[in-house]
Design brief:
322 residues; alpha/beta; 7-stranded mixed beta sheet; globular
Length: 322
């Protein structure tokens, strides 16, 4: 078993390696002056199970999400050509996951294109955390391990709120199943936000009303990602208008693009609880003590060990995933 890291998030790879009691493998990653990427593994990988960890993110002033995707693909290709026994792509945040279907004619389904590229590169297995939609698993012919940060978020809620005061809120109809599962694990009621999204615009939606009782309660919004934070901040404002005492936002993936930091800082949200599937540069963090970051490394490390030892990954989550 060998673990390699791309350049998008080596800190998470080191944390995962520490949990496994191993080191990160040596690989030379470079970029030519015209932007092309170069990869060479500095040690033998013949006959190994090689795990390549790369989160799909854009770094301010650095490489883009597209660069990091190609870098991981080139690493997979190099490993296959160097006779690795199995190559497993570990993608804490799966890029283009929101492009999973056609909402309008002549649109791309980029999440399927991503799957095709990984298959063409020779990946034997892929692993990701809290996919935007579960159907993405079906885009792959090879095994897909759908991990979830739900246990981390559930534990935080149990430790920091009381059952009688909280209500779990779905930000839209598409997240009702996740909200019901979350509410069942923390023993709380649920509420649903009615939201309308403009298919002609990205990152734009309007929250229209609240279905359920939130008055006097701690409203806990649960979603898979926070991007520009417009939706989550608008939802928090509406919940406060409907009488919620406090609003807490939970999400697995902290994209925090564009005005997200400023919006979260100025919002009615008391706490923003996320995991470290993505790096959060200082300039993208909301001011003050609003942000709480939970480590996903133990879950990823457990999944890597289970795959290497040919054991059940779903047992990590008591047979469940999302």
């Amino acid at each position: 078993m060998m673990l390699f890291s791309g350049t998008s998030y080596p800190e998470l790879a080191r944390e995962v390696a520490d949990h496994l009691g191993m080191r990160i493998g040596e690989v030379k990653l470079a970029q030519f002056s015209n932007g092309e990427l170069y990869t060479r593994f500095a040690e033998s990988v013949r006959g190994t199970d090689a795990f390549v960890l790369q989160s799909h993110v854009s770094v301010p002033g650095g490489m883009s999400i597209n660069d990091f995707i190609v870098e991981q693909l080139v690493m997979i290709d190099a490993l296959k050509r160097a006779s690795a026994k199995r190559v497993i792509a570990v993608v804490p945040y799966y890029g283009y996951s929101r492009s999973d279907k056609k909402a309008l004619s002549r649109e791309a389904i980029a999440a399927k294109l991503m799957a095709d590229m990984y298959e063409a590169a020779g990946v034997d297995r892929i692993m990701s955390v809290d996919l935007h939609t579960g159907q993405i698993q079906g885009f792959f012919d090879d095994p897909f391990d759908a991990l979830t940060a739900l246990p981390l978020l559930v534990e935080w809620v149990k430790e920091n709120t009381s059952p009688e005061e909280r209500v779990i809120v779905s930000p839209d109809a598409g997240r009702v199943r996740l909200t019901e599962k979350f509410a069942g694990q923390v023993g709380s009621t649920i509420a649903i936000l009615h939201k309308r999204r403009d298919p002609e615009q990205q990152n734009v939606s309007v929250t229209l009303d609240v279905i359920g009782d939130v008055e006097g309660k701690t409203a806990i919004l649960v979603d898979d990602m926070i991007d520009t934070a417009g939706t989550i901040c608008g939802a928090a404002k509406l919940l406060k208008e409907r009488g919620a005492a406090k609003v807490i936002a939970l999400a697995t993936h902290p994209l925090f693009s564009g005005p997200a930091a400023e919006r979260l800082t100025e919002s009615d949200i008391e706490r923003v609880v996320v995991t470290n599937t993505l790096p959060i540069p200082e300039e993208r963090r909301p001011a003050g003590d609003k942000l709480v970051v939970l480590s996903i490394a133990p879950i990823i490390a457990s999944a890597l060990r289970a795959v290497f030892e040919d054991e059940s990954v779903s047992e990590i989550f008591r047979g469940e995933n999302v």
